[in-house]
Amino acid sequence: MTASLQTLKQMALKLGATTSLLQERILENKRIVTEVLVRKIPDDQNNIEIRVAVLGNADAGKSTLLGVLTQGNLDNGRGRARLNMFRHLHEIQSGRTSSISHEILGFNSQGQPINYSSSELITAEEICDSSTKLVTFLDLAGHKKYLRTTIQGLSGYSPHHAMLVVSSAAGAVGMAQEHLAIAVALNVPFFIVITKNDLVDPANTLQNLESFLKQAGSRRVPLIVTTMDDVITAGANQLTANVVPIFCVSSVTGNGLELLTKFLYVLPPGNSSKEKERLEQETPEFHIDENFRAGEVGQILGGLLTRGVIAEGTLMRIGPMKDGSFQDVSVKSIHRNRVPCRMVRAGQSAAICLNSYLPHLRNGMVLVAREENPRGCLFFQASVSVLFHETAIHPGFQTTVHIGNIRQTAIVIGMFSSKCIHTNERDSVVFKFKNHPEYVAVGQRLLFRDGSGKGIGEITQIFPLQNDND
């Protein structure tokens, strides 16, 4: 076995890959079976990156769990671990997350976590440099008041996986069910973490979750992870989306955290390498989630590159403006994970600095290649399915529509096969954006909500605005 592992290591080395032993088992006839993870990082990247959105009700312990995972120190039971996660003073005072914060956890080639406790003065840059795999957590808000921010994070940043955090003291209550329904609607594979096991035995919560998963319109099979074997089974089946791994952890005693960390290490990224290569060949398209000015540096845009490659000095167009037009800009510099870099590739999130300041920028705009002739649109058609509505949806109905990173009020102009749509009914609907044109594409998923009513759909046709000279 030792010789076989050595041979495998040599083979991997020749290909520029690394090997790490996941599990070993001795059979009845005294022979040994091992499972080895062989991981190859693409030649043009430092590490493999996956994005995990963190969902759950307020007070479930999301920020505390992330604080423990990324800082490497256990919580004191009174909120010490979550302080590093908060971005605003009012969050520290109330203990409630209201904005989307990004945190990173690295793994080396042997599967050991690299976090801020690895050495005294380690920076985010050093974590990225010394990791072969990087997990980026999006810490989303759990309170009902901030639901639109949470949906924005889920649809705009298109995470590969969602981690639903449930408190064993309260169970799957409140927004936990709402968040799970949104994750299922947006087709994001998810796993569940039950926290606060040092306070309450999670048996009741586990029972509730099992029945809840079976009736969540998803018919999922819960897999309670108790051993390393379970972790590897869960990791291998995560993308088939039928199995939902459930972890029981405590951020105070550290119980169960080792299994969760190992699972994050073996968790596969969403896209295959062939799909990634195909996306990189296309013309670049960067979706803007945040925009701000930083002193003398200039205009900065934060967001996700859905296709193509952007390098420093690339000539782009930004829009759509209020009249649906696009303006020419060029990329001055790029940062990823708080570190300057030369280029950003399809599927990566980044902060891009432009060479000029533009007024009237807003979140939901896009950066596209100069050679394209992009147009904004006010009207679009979508095939929609109403998940829930108290009465029925008629023409003239106004609702908040989420399409990727776009969030705007839209009006239902017309329906094709019926005069109105009730809960659990489908139809093809024409929408009109209420305030200004947006850049949308056929095939994009959309989520609309209005109070307790909500529905999902897919864009089937767009009606671009015409230029004056057309």
Question: What do these coordinates show?
Answer:
The protein has 470 residues and is an alpha+beta fold. The chain contains ten helices and 25 strands. Strand 21 and strand 22 form a beta hairpin. Helix 8 runs parallel beside helix 9 (257-266). The N and C termini lie far apart (71 Å). The mean pLDDT is 85.
Shape: globular
**Major sheet characteristics:** 8 strands, mixed
Instruction: Give the % helix.
Output: 10-25%
* Category by helix and strand content: alpha+beta
Mean pLDDT reading: 85
Strand order of the largest sheet: 5-4-6-3-7-8-10-9
Distance between the termini: 71 Å
Gyration radius from CA atoms, angstroms: 23 Å
- The stretches of 5 or more residues where confidence is low (pLDDT under 50) are none
> Tally of extended strands?
25
* SS summary, helix count: 10
Instruction: Provide the β-strand percentage band.
Output: 35-45%
Topology:
Layout: H1 2-14, E1 17-26, E2 32-40, E3 48-55, H2 62-71, H3 89-94, E4 101-107, E5 113-114, H4 124-129, E6 133-139, H5 147-156, E7 161-167, H6 175-185, E8 190-195, H7 203-214, E9 221-224, H8 228-237, E10 243-248, H9 257-266, H10 273-281, E11 285-294, E12 298-307, E13 309-311, E14 315-319, E15 327-336, E16 339-341, E17 343-345, E18 349-354, E19 366-369, E20 377-388, E21 398-403, E22 406-415, E23 426-433, E24 445-450, E25 453-464
Parallel strand pairs: 3-6, 3-7, 7-8, 8-10, 9-10
Antiparallel strand pairs: 1-2, 4-5, 4-6, 11-12, 11-19, 12-18, 13-17, 14-15, 14-19, 15-16, 15-18, 20-23, 20-25, 21-22, 21-24, 22-23, 24-25
Helix pairs in contact: 8-9
